[in-house]
Amino acid sequence: DIQMTQSPSSLSASVGDRVTITCRASQSISNFLHWYQQKPGKAPKVLIYGASSLQSGVPSRFRGSGSGTDFTLTITSLQPEDSATYYCQQTYSSLLMYTFGQGTKLEIK
Amino acid sequence: EVQLVQSGAEVKKPGESLKISCKASGYSFTNYWIGWVRQMPGKGLEWMGVIWPGDSDTRYRPSFQGQVTISVDKSISTAYLQWSSLKASDTAIYYCARRGDIPTYYLMDVWGQGTTVTVSS
Question: Which residues are CB-contacts of A102 (< 8 A; sequence separation ≥ 6)?
Answer without folding.
Answer: A4, A5, A6, A9, B44
